[in-house]
UniProtKB/TrEMBL annotation:
Gene Ontology BP terms: wobble position ribose methylation
Keyword Nucleus: no
Reactions listed under catalytic activity: cytidine(34) in tRNA + S-adenosyl-L-methionine = 2'-O-methylcytidine(34) in tRNA + S-adenosyl-L-homocysteine + H(+); 5-carboxymethylaminomethyluridine(34) in tRNA(Leu) + S-adenosyl-L-methionine = 5-carboxymethylaminomethyl-2'-O-methyluridine(34) in tRNA(Leu) + S-adenosyl-L-homocysteine + H(+)
EC number(s) recorded for this UniProt protein: 2.1.1.207
Gene Ontology MF: a single term: S-adenosylmethionine-dependent methyltransferase activity
Primary location: cytoplasm
Upper classification of the organism: Bacteria, Pseudomonadati, Planctomycetota, Planctomycetia, Pirellulales
GO CC terms, sorted: cytoplasm
Domain of life assignment: Bacteria
This protein's name: Putative tRNA (cytidine(34)-2'-O)-methyltransferase
């Protein structure tokens, strides 16, 4: 964990991420939009992994991030906030969600997505990012970027008074 360089507008959770490049890219997006990155163990890499920091370039030092040991620890830390679960199994499209500041956006493992028990805990808050049938899903880091900018766009269009990136 590092000192918090900014108050997060969103919380991005990567549940047991496997690929350091994806996590590094997600970290870069989090800095860009003012989100806090949460990593739920076990991780498929070391947090000080060269590839993780390389993908995040020189932005990692500005990232507000934290690693938690398991799903329950994450719930203990963020339990009072609203969670959105991103999964290809959802029937609700990302564009139909109404995001509010400090929402928690949860993304699963690159190889398996989110476990069924997490998805089933709140099916009404499971979201999908629309893709043509030729594509199973978007890359994890791309999915996070799409979701973050959808939330920021909603706030901008609604005139929400939050400090948005320019």
């Amino acid at each position: 964990m590092n000192p918090e360089p900014y108050q997060p507008l969103l919380h991005i959770v990567l549940y047991q991420p496997e690929i350091p490049y994806n996590t590094g890219s997600v970290g870069r997006t989090c800095v860009a939009v003012g989100a806090k990155l949460w990593l739920v163990r076990p991780l498929g890499f070391q947090v000080d992994n060269y590839h993780l920091r390389r993908a995040g370039l020189d932005y990692w030092q500005h990232l507000n991030w934290q690693v938690v040991d398991d799903w329950q620890h994450l719930l203990d830390e963020l339990g009072q906030r609203r969670f959105w679960y991103f999964t290809k199994f959802a029937t609700r499209d990302l564009g139909h969600a109404e995001f509010t500041p400090e929402d928690v956006l949860v993304f699963g493992r690159e190889s398996q997505g989110l476990p069924e028990e997490i998805r089933n805990s709140a099916p009404e808050r499971c979201l999908r990012i629309a893709c043509r049938s030729e594509v199973r899903s978007l890359n994890l880091s791309n999915s996070v970027a799409v979701a973050c900018y959808e939330a920021l766009g909603q706030w901008r269009r609604a005139g929400t008074d939050v400090p948005l990136p320019e």
